[in-house]
Amino acid sequence: MNTTKYPKRLIEVDLPIKRISAHARREKSIRHGHISTLHIWWSRKPLGVCRSVMCATLWPDPVDENCPQSFRDLATEYINNFAKKAATDKELSKHCSTEIWSKWQVLAKLENQLDSNNIQHWNILRNSLLDFIADFANWDNSTQADYLETSRNLTQAAHEALGGIPGTKPLVVDPFAGGGSIPLEALRVGADAFASDINPVAVLLNKVVLEYIPKYGQQLADEVRKWGQWVKEEAEKELAQFYPKDADGSTPIAYLWARTIICEGPGCGAEVPLRSSLWLCKKSNRNIGLRIIPQPEEKRVDFEIIEKQKSKWVVSDHPEIEVKNPSFDGTVKRGSATCPCCGYTTPVASVRTQFKARQGGANDARLYCVVTTRTSQQGRFYRLPNAQDLEAIKNASIELEKRVNEHNGNLSLIPNEPVPPQSRSFRLESYGISQFGELFTHRQNLALTTLVKLVKDVGEKLADSKNKGLADAVQTCLSLAIDRQANTLTSLSRWHTTRENIEGLFARQAIPMVWDIAEANSFSGATGGLDGALQWVLGVCETNCTTDNEIIGQTQQSSATNHPLPDNFIQALITDPPYYDSIEYSDLSDFFYVWLKRTLPKTIGIPFNDELTPKEEECIVNPTQGKDKAYFERQMGKAMAEGCRILSPEGIGVIVFAHKSTSGWEAQLQAMVDAGWTITASWTIDTEMGTRMNAMGTAALASSVHIVCRPRTPDSALIGDWRDVLQELPQRIHEWMPRLASEGVVGADAIFACLGPALEIFSRYDRVEKASGELVTLKEYLEYVWAAVSKEALSMIFSNADTTSFEEDARLTAIWLWTLSTGSADNNETNESETDDEDDDETSSKPTKTGGYTLEFDAARKIAQGLGAHLEQLTRLVEVKGSTARLLPVSERIEYLFGKEEAQTPSKTKGKKGKKKEPEQLNLFAVLGITETEEDTDWGEKNLPQLGNTTLDCIHQSMILFAAGRSEALKRFLVDEGAGKDQRFWGLAQALSALYPTGTEEKRWVDGVLARKKGLGFS
Questions:
Q1: Quick count: other Cβ atoms within 10 Å of Cβ 322?
Q2: How far is it, in rounded angstroms, from Cα 176 to Cα 624?
Q3: CA distance linking residue 557 with residue 197, whole number of Å
Q4: Could you give the CA distance from residue 597 to residue 610 in angstroms, rounded to a whole number?
Q5: What pLDDT is recorded for position 922?
Q6: What's 939's DSSP letter?
Q7: Which residues have a Cβ under 8 Å from the Cβ of 351 and sit 6 or more positions away?
Q8: Maximum distance among all alpha carbons in the chain?
Q9: Which has the closest alpha carbon to 793: 758, 747, 749?
Q10: pLDDT of the residue at 864
């Protein structure tokens, strides 16, 4: 029964998260026409997710007793009509999933038509709306006419039924609009959208997506194509001499450079090109690399290109010369450089010092390879640089210097704005890079400044246009294309050896130093060029244009802490605010801001006058700017309070959040509760890529949690009794977690998804007090939430067992592994495309490949406390270092479990010495540092380890015996010593088998033990 006066929305009762997540995962790989390809913005959410959430937020739940009958009537009519058309129209049926199409077929029959006055049909109507939402999440349906018409009709029906003025639309506001996904989907489903952001780059992107493209449609795309071609042709006329074709007609598409240092080895002084790897192309059917030829007398090295032909390596230009056992190790590792001439390693501090004097060393880097294409052959071809290449580079530097000297204007020709200070995401200052212009080589700056000039020329040519708005839109879109070009035309771009293309600077959410540079030829028509930049922008314009030019949003630059809209004005606040300390938006966007300042028309209504993007009010945690957790809570609290202020009393909010730290979550939730929000639901939907750099091997969320909330009204301002809250909490978690599990939501995602229902209890009150009158803080309550979630998860893991019978180490291990699980991907997976050629420099953010399973310490502490365990007493199981805690792998527990006396056991079998087994057996000697002797090989026949102190210890001992190939010892341990006679042993082993990630040693070992169960007579 709904105890509120307002009708609940669909999102407050149900959401098809499993089906939405499936579409979201697919959408991540879609490129053409997607707004993510218009321009880089960080942590954009999938459009399908935003679309689904938008519909479920705006539409009432027809089952709710407070749902207006007028909505039920119209929703029934629209769903009946959609079902009939889906069942009979071949084209529409192709857009329906098989499962849902079968339901439309049933509903389409006359005897099954929904009746809005039949209370028994209300549940069917609810489920039909949710089915519609699930299929509408499909990218392919985002522009399908029937889905668009039906969704807009439902949105309008909901708005008017909920009290909206007939003919008006519900207003959806996103005060942290970022890349524009949320407001775009508000427009798509028939709402009005107001998008604001403090960052002018974000406001610009929203203006293009919400105003320019809807308003000018195909006309804008045609004009961008026309003028983009003009810019390209004019630029090529000016710059072709600096990118000459080869004598044989081949076209250079990429120039590969290496920054250099001078070896500081005694008496050496050779120039050392810094390369993290010597691979040029590394594919299953093609392998090409470099061979370094030291020339110590000349204090330099030469390069030779080698390739694999059949089973042997040969010199590319002289295939008759075979190269034996080539090494592809580079010259630099973790920032320290090893000289090929003398072998001396110059330390990272000295490397930095050398670069500091040369502004990063991009303009005196060593060109070592040119990648070309041929008209008569497919593929990429690799050659050494020649005199023509070097002459063109020299002439480009001369031409740039000439233009700089001749330039006069308010802004410098080359961006001289300062780069961000040294921080977690920026490592430039220590290499002497202080201005944005220094991120580019002379030829890159020449190309980019030429393109900037030509885009401004387009603006001048269109200045007398009758349609000034269209002229501004064209120049703005061309400016975004130049930004796309800047991303690949920088000294921080690199060559991707498996894809054989240029990887732009923002492959990560950071600006790191890289040693080897891939310089694009903007006019090659290939990777990283201007053609591609223009085509991506055009694709977005064409895919998102509509014949209905009345569906236009509104954008404005403003701080979320001081919103320009009046009180009680909007119907929905849906936003994806900054995630605590995850992304430094303003510092990252400055890279584009400095170019946009130089290309945009002055009449677009967005200020690009300041030196850099606004920093002072940006709501993030950033120690280099003096912004800590308290600052974040204050700013986010103000933003959330502003959201409450502008939202109508019957309105609804959805706040998207995804952060793996407990402190980040506490800060966000505290801000919401303090601002006067009551949380009514929460849903986790897959929005993050599991193979992104910061997700691998950690408890990073695979999903974003959508927190549904309502303004806490004065008449609901009650004081909650702490005892009542604690009594209700476990039941809510017990109801919620199986529902999440059925949707495939487990681990860290499930923990954070439970915060919504848990906070609904706490946040419905103005304050919660203990019997003594003491105020209960949110932080204290969250400790109980973690405990309740841990206990419920444990009961789900051991569904048929009494969890209290297991010792604390077993309970903690089970929950720890469950927290790291994702439900769809292995925790230990790696992104193979990145591991082969990822830069191993001093700034690399690749996870350290250590064993074990890592959690944030505070999360681990909360989990342990909820289970009655204490980390400080479990040092044989958990290692704590700084802010992280690591569950030790079984192989690191051997010495504790066996002791050196008992553990002097071989892992090899006689007669197999030197042969590697597949899978390789555990070498106990190597682990313990014990010398193997011949008489040790019968270990397991005479000596057995003492039974461990706990069930988990016994299981780990048996896993080690299996891993070491000690079948007889394992049998005696389980049968004679009685380890297997305890039913807890097999119950825990079965649970661990399900929890250890697929492909790990632990998973294989415990499965090996379980496979012996039946044969040893255990039932």
A1: 12
A2: 22
A3: 5
A4: 9
A5: 52
A6: T
A7: 261, 274, 332, 335, 336, 337
A8: 97
A9: 747
A10: 87
At residue 671, the pLDDT reads 86
- Burial call 141-179: b when 16+ CB within 10 Å, e when fewer: bbebebbbebbbbbbbbbbbbbebeeeebbbbbbbbbbb
* H or E element at residue 532: helix 530-544
User: How do residues 331-381 score in pLDDT, each as one tens digit?
Assistant: 999 899 999 999 999 999 999 999 999 999 999 999 999 999 999 899 999
- The reported pLDDT for the residue numbered 353 is 95
Query: With left for phi above 0 and alpha for psi between -120 and 50, is residue 940 left, alpha or beta?
Result: left
Strand order in the sheet with 300-309: 279-282, 287-295, 300-309, 312-315, 322-323
Joined together, the tokens standing for residue 94 give 């192709």
pLDDT at 826: 35
Provide the residue type at 1012 as one letter: R
Inter-CA distances, 543 with 139, 534, 720, Å: 12, 14, 51
Sheet holding 251-258, edge to edge: 377-383, 366-374, 251-258, 516-520
Q: What is the pLDDT of residue 943?
A: 59
For every residue of 350-419, DSSP letters joined together read HHHHHHHTTTTSSTTPEEEEEEEEETTEEEEEEE---HHHHHHHHHHHHHHHHHHHH--SSS-SS--PBP
Q: How many angstroms separate the CA atoms of 763 and 680, rounded?
A: 9
SS (H, E, C) 873-932: HCCCCEEEECCEEEECCHHHHHHHHHHHHHCCCCCCCCCCCCCCCCCCCCCHHHHHCCCC
Label residue 567 exposed, middle or buried (CB < 10 Å: 0-12, 13-18, 19+): exposed
Tell me how far apart the alpha carbons of residues 697 and 553 are, in angstroms, rounded to a whole number: 41
**Cα–Cα distance, 514 to 503 (Å, whole number):** 12
Question: Crossing angle of helices 983-995/808-820, nearest 10°?
Answer: 20
List CB contacts of 607: < 8 A, sequence separation 6 or more.
Answer: 200, 557
Long-range CB contacts for residues 473-476, cutoff 8 Å, separation at least 24: 473/208, 473/212, 473/215, 473/216, 473/220, 473/223, 474/220, 474/223, 474/224, 474/227, 475/599, 475/600, 475/601, 476/204, 476/207, 476/208, 476/212, 476/600, 476/601, 476/604
pLDDT < 50 stretches in the chain: 1-2, 547, 690-701, 824-849, 901-919, 925-941
State the DSSP code for 277.
B
Mapped onto helix, strand or coil, the DSSP state of residue 615 is coil
Q: Identify the CA nearest to 501 among candidates 291, 281, 273.
A: 281
pLDDT score, position 828: 35
| pLDDT for res 787 | 87
Residue range 533-578, pLDDT digits in tens: 999 999 999 988 764 556 899 999 999 999 999 999 999 999 999 8
d(CA 513, CA 693): 16
- Distance, CA of 914 to chain centre: 44
| Pairwise CA distance, residues 78 & 120, whole Å | 18
**Single-letter amino acid code for the residue at 614:** P
b/e sequence 272-304, b meaning 16+ C-beta within 10 Å: bbbbbbbbbbbeeeebbbbbbeeebeeebbebb
291 bridge partner residues: 304
pLDDT digits (tens, 9 = 90+) for 469-490: 999 999 999 999 999 999 999 9
C-alpha pair distances (Å), 154 with each of 58, 66, 87, 166, 190? 9, 17, 20, 14, 9
User: Which two three-digit tokens encode residue 97?
Assistant: 């999933």
Collect all residues with Cβ–Cβ distance below 8 Å to 78 and sequence separation of at least 6: 150, 153, 154, 157
Token pair of 1012 as six digits: 């012996």
Sign of the dihedral defined by the CA atoms of residues 500, 505, 694, 884, in that order: positive
| C-beta separation of 264 from 277 below 8 A | no
Which amino acid is it at 597?
K
Residue that has been written with the tokens 């341990």 in this structure: 973
Q: For the chain, first and last CA: distance in Å?
A: 47
Query: Which tokens go with 568?
Result: 């009680």
Structure tokens at 563: 């919103």
The pairing of strands 171-174 and 192-197 is parallel
